[in-house]
Amino acid sequence: MLKNRRLRIPPFKITRGIHRLQNERLSASQQGSILVAIIITMVVMATLGAGMIYLTTTSTFQELLANNHARAYYAAESGGRYANALIRETLAKGSQAEFDALTASISNTTYTMANNDQFQISYWTPEYIPIAGGFTVRVTYDSIGTVGSGFLQAKVRLRYRINPANQGSGSGGPGGGGGPGGGETPPVLALPRPASDFDIPKQDLDIYYSPVDMSQVDIKDNPFVDSDRALNLKADYYIMGLKWYANPTMPQLDQMRTANGGLLSYRAQVKIKVNNDRADQFNKFNIIGISFRLDDTGGGSMTSNIAYPDTYGISFVKMPGPWESNINAARYKNAPDWFKQVVHPEASWNLVCDDNWHLVLWKRAAGETGAHKVLAYRTLTSADWACSSGTGTTCLTLKDWSTIYVDVEEKFGSATDIYGFTDPSVRYNVITAYLQGGSVIGGLPPTPPGPYLRSTIAAPQDIWWQDDPDNPKFQPVRWTGVGSGAVNPAWIWRGAWASGIAYAINDVVENRGSTYLCTSAHTSTSDTEPGIGTNWQQYWTRVPANPIADASLTTLNYSNYTPTTNPKAREIGLHIYNIKTNAQTIFYDNFYIDLSPSSPPGEEGGGLMDGTGSIEVGP
């Protein structure tokens, strides 16, 4: 019979069996891990799917919004064309009453097109200008195109100003650039872009500018000028003007003046770089900037700068101070001849001789012996964007490539002239200067005057204003002081317009980006809101921000031109008053002149000064 036996199993077999069981359990764990991984993958895929749906939906909305922006631009453009056609049609009737009726019917009116897109004509501001035998009118207005509703709504605003020379021809002007945010055509430039940017061989300067002494001018392309070609006037004194009178490819200023009722208006700008690292003894005599109404026809040869021509200047200025009557004083050691001859003898320069940078508007008046007189000045401080170092009352160094911008409007006097020139036979200049500024300067509104033309961004956007931190928008210059003889109206800055405020004659306010002068005392209501209210023109008139008016200089000798004995005035140019060794480190770039305010009829941009147009996204 069988007996019970105790089995003896070797230890290594038991261990191997345990290992087998452990291995089986690991396989089960792996199976669980796979299940977890599958679940995670499904969650990730679901999330990605949702994200793809969101992105697709967002992309669709973005495409719809972009399409609406383009449609809104075209709607605003349609409004401009419609308004311009009405202006031409109404002016042809020759009645101011007819134009008053147009003003009443079109102001703040919304028009709906067949596809339900809309445009509204707003801020309609006519300025009647008396002329022999009747009147003409300058009209400023906004055309606002609107497409869609809710969060997909898009609005585009285009600013138009129609000048007497050409009521509605073309649609260029300041800020033009083709496409949303600009006009259809560029501003009417006096120079080809390469000549304005100095992207031409040095010898080609003589094609566009006069005089050009090749020993006194240069075009540099090196790290100091950011490897972007720039002009150097390397003389202690030099003025280089336009050679339009001898270059038929350039706009002919005499023809433009004739076509514009005998008036020539324009705006000009230039970027300037000075060498702030130069020792004071080499960098203390500086007048650097733009000349305008430049007329040296009474001073002999057009190719000589020995005589000082009649001209206005808008300049960055830095000179030693305080002023001393003794020209042989130690502070005037090595002073250049121009300082001794035309600045030191003229007392109006005393206030800007203090070793700090200023912006100065000055003139060398017609018929005088050569003295240069200060019309107005602004003491630059650390609050000004153009100042790179200084205090609340001083500016020791300028920022590289700071820009001077000047707007020059020529006008005839009239009985109701707001600047006091009541004689209709008198012609005078309304001069408004602008500097870059990241904030309001001196309480004036941030009103860009037109195009800020840059060559640093790829075309076509390089002729648009670029709103970026490195190049903040222009601000009208608030003058620190005004010289004798210049007219700086006694206007009182009241800030932004508001309802329920008692306004007096000569109060100035800002409303919706424009500046207005009170012409009749009143307490404001919605009906008198400048540019908007139904009765606003009874109480306000639109004006430049802080202008200077002066009747000293005109350039009317164009019709008497002969190439050798009576050359035409150069009108606009660049100047340097300096020490020769320091002048070689001062550079100019982006010298743009916009002639659209005086464009002859029928030319692109003729008479129209079409703003940059800002895109406003709804709702």
What low-confidence regions span 5 or more consecutive residues with pLDDT below 50? 1-7, 12-23, 165-186, 298-306, 439-472, 600-619
Radius of gyration: 33 Å
Mean pLDDT: 75
> Which structural class matches the secondary elements?
alpha+beta
**Ends: how far apart?**
103 Å
Q: Percent of residues in helical segments?
A: 10-25%
Treating each run of at least 4 consecutive H or I residues as one helix, how many helices? 7
* Count of beta strands: 29
Placed side by side, the strands forming the largest sheet appear as 5-8-27-10-11-12-13-19
Reported for the largest beta sheet, the result is: 8 strands, antiparallel
Name the beta content range.
25-35%
Domains (count): 3
Q: Name the shape in a single word.
A: globular
Secondary structure blueprint with pairings:
Blueprint: H1 11-92, H2 96-106, E1 109-112, E2 118-131, E3 134-147, E4 154-162, H3 193-197, H4 205-208, E5 209-210, E6 217-220, E7 230-233, E8 237-242, H5 253-259, E9 266-273, E10 286-295, E11 310-318, H6 337-343, E12 358-364, E13 373-379, E14 387-390, E15 395-398, E16 402-412, E17 427-436, E18 474-476, E19 481-482, E20 492-496, E21 502-503, E22 507-511, E23 514-518, E24 522-523, E25 540-542, E26 548-550, E27 571-577, H7 580-583, E28 587-594, E29 614-617
Parallel strand pairs: 20-22
Antiparallel strand pairs: 1-2, 2-3, 3-4, 4-29, 5-8, 6-7, 8-27, 9-16, 9-28, 10-11, 10-27, 11-12, 12-13, 13-19, 14-15, 16-17, 17-18, 17-26, 21-24, 22-23, 23-25
Helix pairs in contact: 1-2
